Every structure is written in structure tokens, then in C-alpha cells.
TrEMBL record:
Transmembrane segments: none annotated. This is P-loop containing nucleoside triphosphate hydrolase protein. It holds the Pfam family Helicase_C. Gene3D superfamilies: P-loop containing nucleotide triphosphate hydrolases, Tandem AAA-ATPase domain. Residues 150-199, 827-852, 1152-1172 are annotated as: Disordered. It comes from Sordaria brevicollis. The keyword ATP-binding applies. Residues 150-159, 168-181 have a biased composition (Polar residues).
Amino acid sequence: MPSIDVDRFLAAGCITINEAESGICSELWSAPLLQKWHSIKVSDSIAGNPTYDPSVGPVVIADSNPPLHSMVQNGLLESPALSPFLSLLGSKWVHMTFRITPENPTIGILRVYILPDDVENRRFPRFDARLQQLRAKLFQLLDRSSGTWDGNIKSQKVKSNGHEDGKNTSGNPQSLLQMFNTLPAPEPQPSEVNDPDRRKSMCNLLENKVRGLKTIMYPFQCRSAALMLQRESQTEPVPDPRLPKRYVDHLGTTYYVDPVVKTIIIDPAYYDSVCGGVLAEEMGSGKTLICLALILETKNIPATVPELYRGAPIVRPKIGSLMDMAAAVISRSGVAWKENFGFDSPDTEGIQYNAILKAIQRNPGWYGKEAVIHPGRRTRRRETAETQNQQIYLSHASLIIVPPNLVTHWEQEINKHTSGLRVLFQTKTLSVPPVEDLKEFDIVLFSRAVFDRLYDKRGTNLHVSSQLATLAKVHFKRCIIDEGHVLGASSQGGAKMTNLQRVMDCLQIDAKWVVTGTPSVGLYGLENGVQGSLEQSHQVSTDIEVRDLRKIGVMAAVFLKARPWANTLSDTRGEWKPGKGRNHVLWDDYIVKPWSSRTADGQDDCLKAALGSLIVRHPKLDIVPFLPSVTERTVYLDGSYQDILALNLFSMHIIFNAVQSERKDQDYFFHKSQRTELGRLVNNLRQASFFGGQFWPKEQILTAIRRAEEFLDEGEVEISAEDDELLRKGIEFGWIAVKNEMKDSAYRFVQVPVYVENFPYGAGEHWSVAGSRGGKDPVCTVAPLLLRLQDCMRRYLQDPKTLDDLAEKGFISEQGDQARSKLYPLLATNSKNPNDPPHHSNNSNGGEDEDFTMKRERIRLEKQKSNRRTIKSMMQAAQITKENEGLGSEAPVAAPLAKTRLISTASAKLSYLIDQIIQHQASEQILIFYENDNVAYYLAETLEVLGIQHLIYAKGITTERRNRYLAAFTDASGSGSGSGGGSKFRVMLMDISQAAFGLDMKTASRIYFINPILNPQQGAQAIGRARRISQQKPVTVETLVLRGSMDEVIARRREEMSPAEQRKCKSGRSVHILDDKPIYDWIRNAKILPLPKDVNCEDGQAQMAKLAEPQNIFFLREHELAPNQVDKDDWENEDMGSLALKDDVREFANSMRRKRKYQDNEEEESSASSKRSRHKWMALVEVASFFGRARRVVQAVEGGPSLAMHAMNEQEDEQW
């Protein structure tokens, strides 16, 4: 009978069994014979039908130990410890021996021997899934300690996870964030690189001796660059990462266990190491510089021929010269011939190699590859595709793909840090040069948008197809994807496959790198390290970690093609692996699923090995000393009277709705069917923390009050005493709001009211927006009117005589009336009070007849034209006088204008920001992050009035324009306005959604968040725009919080929330914020805030937030600098100054006024039984009327330093 020696088995471990559980009687148990090792030999009849090869027959296990007595063996096999594993014994997958320990005669030991899956597989096929599961269960039960194997049962039991039983070295399982932050720092080893050229380059990187690099790198940057080169240079196969843990049996044999397919093998599979990886250094740590240093140091090292195509002979049409043949070998071998023969290097000891260089250029390195020729049209029955041999040329080029908004950044960094690089930019249009020229570049830089266009889905664009074909004929040395975290959204095949992935699959590339500070949303550096803080504030849910892991898996399998994660069924068809359908290796099987079901440390070795092989990064603690210090503080502001008034109007309507709808059914604000509308409420509430006067017209407030009073008077619905008090407080406040003229003016003009003192020539009433009282000095007006006033006065700032004449002729007053009527068209031109309604003729009530009215109007217009002609001649004369007298910029501003100053605004946040900008703009550049476009519009208008040069980085402008704005803002060569020098633009308004990744704004050192950001990581990304390793100043960050507003609860919750809760409300958008219960409850339980008691309701100036220092309105402006100085004409064509405001403001005001014509034509009251339903319906109408309130959508258009263009949200216009 065939036999197999027991030495072919693995001495895996032991199972202990006591006398009571053994099933052996006491007489046999106490027999001295059992204190020696005996084999358990199971016959086929006991095991059922063992799975041996019928052609071979039954096989016995040759063991030197005598067989166990049948009565003892039967008792053991029937015991609970062994009975489940009878089939394993009978199938010869497992062998066991038994003895009783002399030291402890009540305990017996079963030694377990396991046959590896790659041993004797023909005799004992290991494809039975049921037996695989049983063996895996048995393996988990084994005690693998050497003491127990030797019979000393007092030794500590060791489980298969490698930890001592009963002890978990780290307590709770390690989180993914913690694992990411504890990855070992790069430790490059040049001695492990065989190629001498690459080994020398590694040493140069580590020693900071990169030729052509203008910047001295920090030590951690040198290590990262050197490790990247080492990863690119190592081509030796590495063990299967699915088997990261090595086991050793008790006879010294090494083996591996696959926890997914339940295999146990001696010889693991080997795969090519990952050529590339993920450069995941911290934000602002100089990842671009690291990549440029790597490219610069290896620019003379060409790409290598893939191993599959090496050795193919070069067939020439005729016999070549010895020089040509030698040159062909050199160009194909991958050696750094450029440096050796002085192509770029002067270090050639005076020897000229012109003939050699020409020979190499005549014989470029290439290899042949079979290319599939796809048919132009797809058919249902597609024949075997044709192939042709295509020449692929080796190059020295590195392919870089960057987001469109980072193109300028890379151009600047290349110019700043390097010299001698040949760079091809493909960032606007697609124009790839021929192969002969393309392979000579050192860098080919694509914008992501242009690179995506290389994929032609239909194959009909011949130009695009030819461009891609040209790229496919060049073998690139490496590819770098900047901000490559976007690759995590792709998939391996299928509908979600991105154009970038499809194009990449057509190219030949040696090494691939993903460059990103955050490989996934939940993976970021911890400022204070891992110890102490992770268990409390950085724990996240398993579901979130699973999403992060899947994104990393996509990067590994789809882009980096890391095996075995990138294996397909065809890749592994020849690879032996037991188990049906197990050849297609999935990241989910080995990484994601085990992670989601783990209970302790020691079960994530595969993930640790995978992350370690992919990611290059230093712990943040190692980099923090090189980053500028950051001072963060939250500034709590007391709201102005108008701020509190606006917030209370929201609370009033929420209270009215809650009480009248009885907090139930669809009429209620917070019913699930009102989710979208509630989201709009939150958006408006957040906006109201900056300024909310543009919400709630007087008529709507009045209607809501009367309905609430009617609800109380009728008493049809029984309400609690608390609700009764809430309703009465709301009504009381509502009457205060209705009578507030400034609130009404803010709504009608859709602007932030401001106060100006010493208005020139006493013309304030013509520029006022707040009725008769607003025309007295100081004057209540708005920014667009001040911009128009500045434009009118600009030519005569130094000419007081002409100004006096113009004022006497009524020019200033007339311009004010015109500007005000354009801003709010329904104001009558001849009305002195902007609160007066327009006059209408009514003959039936004794009004003037039409003929007389028209005649009077013609007389008025003729007189106005005559005055204009006089004013025009005066202007021309003033200009001649000015030229003759030589008035220049040295003359001061005319006295009537010199004392006109802005003293207050209706917004506490706006006033605070103005004070801060004025204080710091001379020495620091300032970033202001906003969430709402209206807020940016209000702030930009005020900055324009004060002559503060600013730019805006918003969603509504093109990427190219944003890049130019960024370049202008960070231009250190510009003439700054203060001692700080640098760019003339001192302030950048930036949409928080546009500030997440990659932007380098290191010239800014002061940051303001207009609203608190709920997700700290989004805030950290925004701060990272200025906190760069090349930043020269400490960074100051302030978050503005208005007391009593939703800002307060968001700021508080941000400190309390776990990362899982933050990710749930990740973007700060309203719908996500409502997922947080404390914030949701705060909105639902709105309260009326007490109004300041010391403020006179009729004193408009007392209702404002004063500036710390009044600011002049009229001043001598410097020549305005356009962001793209090379495109000044384009800038001037799209001027965004105050003159460009008037038509857009007028159009916007007209649209708003049309919306206000909506009248509530409520039907007459029905019977008493329907009154309760009517109250509910009217409560819902209040919701609808509020949510249907038109909101201006401000869009930053292309051109000029201010945000001035705005448009209506058409969907909301049509809502009701």
C-alpha cells in the first residue's frame, strides 16, 4: 500500500484534552503505556469516503510511533474535541499523535500535523471546500507554543495570531487612521539597488547634491525622493503580500496561511514589486519639490525595456557599422549614456563625444510590441482582432498629470526650483509633437482636462486618435498624478472606469506615482501624533474606514497595477491555487472584509504589508518642525441690532409654523417631506449670521403676525402655555420688525446698509436708502451707490472749484437719484423719500388729466437736459483748467470730499473684517474663506468702496482665469502696497469648496473663516493653502462666530463631534448638517433673542456695527493692476469696477421686485369646521413663501478684482 512519510507534514501545534472530555475510561487513562506518543490511524470506514485518487488507492502515513489502542482511539474520536475533524483524519489532510503528560496525569496532548497544500496534492487533492473550512477551524484551535509541544502544559498558550492568549498588546483594534499615521518613515537603502547609475542617484538625493536643483531640500524630502527612486529601481520579485505572516512549525519548517482561501503552503507565490506607489507626505511639505528633485536627478537615466521584450534581436536591412551596433546596444540597455558622453553634463574631462552622440541618435532605443488593431465599428460577432508589431521608443521623459487649477503652480515650481529641464506643456490645447521630438523632453506635463480628451469614445476624432497613438509609441520613465486621490472614484473595468484610466491603459510607463496628502478623506496626518488622542477624538466607524480602504484598493489595482491586486482571471490562469473560482484576487476579500470583521490587533497584517509597500510618507510629527506655526482662535462677535433682528425673524417664522401646525403632518417645517426646503432654511440661516436683512419683506411679516393673532383669538386649537408664550413673544417682536425702516430698506435694495458721515455738499438724501431720517448726516446708503458716487467724483477729486460748480447745478443730487432709481427702479425719480410709493394718476379721484401730466413731464425733462449741457461744458472747462494749471497727484483731495468717511455697517462680521483688513493688509496678505456667494458679494463691494485690491477664487470663473488670479496674488515680484511688498492684491476671497487640494498660497499669512466649518479636515485643507513649508511668516487663523446664531452651535459641535459624525456632515452643506441631531434640535427649538435695550428703534445709526476707525471714501487711487498683466486688454474688456455694477444691479432688482408682486389672494373664510385646516394650510404657505424667497446667486465672472456680476436662481424663481 502506498505510504507518505510524516515528515512531509507540518508539525503545526497541539490540542489539550482532559480526562473528563476524552471519552476514555479511568482504567485505560491511567495506563502507563499512554504516557508515550501513539499515532491515531483512522480507517476509511470510520471517516466515510476519503478523497484519495482512485488510480493510486488508499495511502497510509508512515509514522515511527506505535498505533494507539483501538478502545482508547475510539474514545478520543468520539470526544467533542476530535469528533468534528474525523473527515480530515480520514482524508489524510491531518495526522495526530496522542500522549498523557507525566507531570499532569489528568491532561492529554494531541499533536496535530497538517499536510501542506503544495505537497502531495496529486495523492490527496485539496479542493474540498468543506474540508478546507474544517482545517481552518482546527488551525485556529491549535496551541503552537513549543512548551506544550514538548509536554509542558504549564507554558503560556499561543494562538495562531501570534499573541499570547489572554493578552492583547494594544487593547482595542488599531484604527485605519492610526495605522496610516504609524507607517514607518522612509529609510532608503542605496546598497540594495543593483544598478550603479540609480544607486549613485540615490546617494545624490540623500546628500542633497542634485545637479540643476536651485533649492536645498530638507532631510525628510531627501529621504522620500531617494525611497521613490529605490521603489522604481527594485525589480526583484517579492513574496505574495496576501501571505504577510510567516509561520514556523516545531520542526523548523516555514509555512504560510492564506486566511481567505484557507490554504496552507510552504512555497509562496512571488510577484513583481510595485514600481511606484503613493507619495502621501503632509499638505504643504513640498511634494512637488520632491517629485522635481527625483525627475532632475534621473533625467539622464532612460526608461528600460520590459523584461517580456528583452533579448529580441535587432534586424537591420543591411549590416550596420560597429559604432551603430554598439550605439543600439547602449540605447536599449537603460544606462545613463547622456551623462557618460556629455550630452547634458560638462564633466567629460574635455573629451568630445560628438560622433558617439550622433550614432546613438541614429539608433534610438526601442522594442517591438504586438499592438491590437481594433475595428472601426463594433459588430455583434467580432472576429479575432488583428495585431501588428509596433515600435515603442524608450525615452527619458516623465509624464505629469495635474488638475487644471494647479497648472500654474507646477509651472512656477519648475521655474523656481530647477534649471536645465526640457518641459512640454499640454495644458490648454492638445498638440503632441512627433515621436522623435516627444521622447527628448524631460517632462511632459498635461492638465487633467486635456489628458482626458485623449480618449475618444467613438473613435471618430482622427486628430485625438493620432495624438494618443503618438503617446503610445513612447515608453515613459514614470507617470505622476498630482492630487491623485481622485483615482479612488474609478473602478476596475465597468461603467465607472474614467477617461484617465482608459488613456493610461494605452501607454507604456515604467513607474507610476500618486501624489496626494490625503489618499482618502479619512486618512490625514495627526498634528500631535497618535498617542493619547486617537481613542477619543479620532475614532471613526468601520463603514467609513471600509470606504477609505476601497479607494486605496482602486489606486493599487487600477492605476498602480500592483499584483496580486491587479490580477485578472487570465493573469492567474496558470497559477496553482486550490479552491474553485479563487484565481481572481480581490482587494475586498483580503483587505476590506477581514478589516470589517476584525475584533483585535494581529488580524490586519495583510493590510499593513500592502500599505507599507504602496505609501511613502513621514509621520506628521517629523514634519511639523519645518512647517510655520499656526495660531488658531475663534472670535465671538456680538451682533448688531440689525443682525439680531434678522435672526429673530427666522425664529419667529419657525415658531409660528410649529405652533399653528401642531408640529405634525406635512404642514410642519420639520416633517420629512420638507427636507429639501429645510435645507434651504439652513443655508439662509447661515447666511443671516453675516447679514440677513434681504430676507422677509414687510408685507410677509405683517401677514404672518395677523395670522398668528387670528390663531390665538379663535382658540380653535388647544396649545400649551409654553407655546402660547412663544407665539405671543413672536407676535410682539414681529410688530417691532415691521416698523423698522432700515430692515425694510435692506430688503428692498438687497444690500447691506452702511453709514457715511460728512456727505459731500449735503446731498445725502439723494443717495440715502433709509427714508427721510436716512438722508440726514450721517447718511444711510449702500455700497453700489457709493461706488457710483466715487465714479462721478473721481475726475474732480483735486478740483474743488469744479466740484462746487457741479454741486450748485445739482449734478451730485441728480446722479444720486438716477443711481438709486437704477438700483431700485420703482423709486419715483421725483420722489424725495425713497420710502414713498410711486405716484399713479387717478382721474376718478380728482387727479390731474393725462395731457397736463405729460406736458409737465416734458418741461421737466427739457430743463434737465439744459442742466446737463451746462454741466458738460463745465466739465470740459475744468479739464482744460486742470491741464493748464498742472494739477497732479501731489495735490490733496478736495476739502468737501476729504472728510467723507464710512463709519459703520449693518453687519458685525463685515465691520470686523474691514477693521482687520485695514489693520493687516500693509504687512500681510489675507485669505477669506466663504461658503455663500451673497456673502462674498457684500464683502467684495465694500472692499471696492475702500479701494482695497482684492481677487476672488470662486466656482463661477474659468480654471484659466483662476490660475491667473492665483499667480497674481502670489506674485512676489509685484509692488506691494505696504512694507510687506509682494503682490499688489492684498486680499483673496475664496470659496471654501475650491480650496481643498493642491493650491499653494504661501504668500498669505492671515486667514479668516466667515463661518465655522463643521468638518475640521475641510478647514485644515483650507489652512494648508497658506501653511506651506516655504511659508516665511507665522500663520494666523480666525473663525468668526456671531453670538446667538447657528454659528455658535456649529462651533461647539465641531469640538464635540467624532470623525464619523463629521464625515456624516462632511461638506457643511445644509442637508448634511441636518443629519446632526444637536444642530437639528437647535433649529427646531428656535428662540427669540432679546433685542438691545439701549438702542432707539428710530435711531438707524445705533442699529449698526461701528468700525474701529472710520475709513475715507474718497482717495487718490493707484493705477489698477490687472491679474494677468500680459492680457491687459482682455481685463479691460471685462472691467469689474463700479460702472459694471449698475446694469446688473438694476436687472437683479427688477427680478426681485417682480417676485414681490406675488400676493396672497386668500379666499373668504369657510365654515368654522374648516378653520383649523385653514390655519395649518396657512402655516405651510408661510413655509412656501419663505422658501420661495428669491436668493441672489452671485457669480464671479472673468475679469477685474471685485465680485460684481450676479444672477437669479431660476429654479427658485419658478418654485411658487
